[in-house]
Design the sequence.
């Protein structure tokens, strides 16, 4: 029996990610479309960013005509977790991962791709990671395209309700771990409370800046009160 | 300002965050505080982004509140992301049909 190539194995490992991304990015497409972006613009954002929370915050800033500094700062804070994942993953790369491969594959470090590559037995080769990235990106961009397109065609009652989809997904990401770990629950409640305070009491603060400030304060306080042990995940 | 410039900044920052540590980092982070902080950041970000914005996401506070409640309940029972997301939207949509 011929052993499957690393690339094919990567593609197969990436199928669940691609399908999940297809549906989630549909919500992003709807959101982008409802904020006035074109199908092409929404598609390009998904192709060049490949991240959910950062893109959702990004289109909000575009719609609000925020500054580029704000855009850069918001992306930095929301996506800084990828730096940690990149560091962690860099320990698991095979010798085939030359500098050039690292430059290319870095594009595809997302929560889910990181999770699949970390869980893989043995070292991660460039071809394996490319396989996972390609199928995931395919799902992410085609879902965005369909969502943005549907956003312009569907009746307004449907698109209004679908505007909730991405937030619904965020809720689904934060609630289960918050239920299991009181440290995460504390982080989530603190961040939400600060965000509400910023929204209603400090009206001059833009949405993007508010997210940065609330996230940094609540994560820092959580890290002080609940320092994580090395073996926890 | 051109949307292309926004997209370039977005993509550039996001790529740099991934690429710089991936290409150049070979040691492990030692600071317990920093590791803990980075662990909590995604949850803090998502929570701050979701609340209170989710209540404005449908253009009607009542339909959005029903959708939010549906999302919270289903997420509490650990249902898959996509099930939670679609059900929340469906709950908001049906509420809209009833009250609007």
Sequence:
């Amino acid at each position: 029996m011929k052993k499957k190539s690393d690339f094919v194995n990567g593609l197969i490992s990436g199928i669940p990610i691609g399908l999940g991304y297809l549906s989630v990015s549909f919500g992003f497409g709807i959101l982008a479309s409802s904020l006035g972006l074109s199908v092409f613009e929404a598609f390009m954002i998904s192709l060049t960013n490949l991240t959910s929370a950062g893109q959702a915050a990004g289109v909000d800033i575009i719609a609000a005509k925020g500054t580029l500094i704000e855009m850069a700062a918001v992306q930095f804070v929301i996506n800084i977790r990828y730096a940690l994942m990149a560091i962690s993953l860099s320990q698991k790369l095979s010798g085939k991962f030359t500098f050039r491969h690292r430059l290319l594959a870095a594009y595809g470090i997302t929560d889910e791709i990181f999770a699949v590559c970390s869980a893989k037995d043995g070292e991660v080769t460039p071809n394996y990671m490319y396989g996972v990235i390609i199928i995931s990106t395919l799902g992410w961009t085609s879902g965005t395209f369909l969502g943005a397109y549907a956003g312009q065609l569907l009746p307004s009652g449907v698109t209004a309700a679908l505007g909730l989809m991405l937030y619904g997904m965020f809720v689904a990401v934060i609630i289960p771990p918050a239920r299991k770990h009181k440290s995460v629950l504390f982080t989530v409640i603190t961040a939400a409370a600060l965000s509400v305070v910023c929204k209603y009491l400090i009206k001059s603060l833009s949405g993007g800046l508010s997210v940065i400030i609330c996230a940094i304060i609540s994560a820092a306080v959580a890290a002080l009160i609940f320092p994580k042990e090395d073996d926890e995940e | 300002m051109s949307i292309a410039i926004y997209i370039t900044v977005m993509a550039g920052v996001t790529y740099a965050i991934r690429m710089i540590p991936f290409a150049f980092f070979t040691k492990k982070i030692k600071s317990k505080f920093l590791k803990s902080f980075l662990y909590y950041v995604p949850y803090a970000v998502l929570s701050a982004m979701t609340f209170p914005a989710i209540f404005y996401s449908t253009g009607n506070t009542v339909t959005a509140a029903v959708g939010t409640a549906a999302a919270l309940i289903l997420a509490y029972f650990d249902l898959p992301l996509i099930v939670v997301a679609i059900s929340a939207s469906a709950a908001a949509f049906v509420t809209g049909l009833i009250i609007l």
Observations:
- Chain A touches chain B through 97 residues (CB under 8 Å).
- Residues 181-227 of chain A form one domain.
- The radius of gyration of chain A is 19 Å.
- The longest helix of chain A spans residues 6-34.
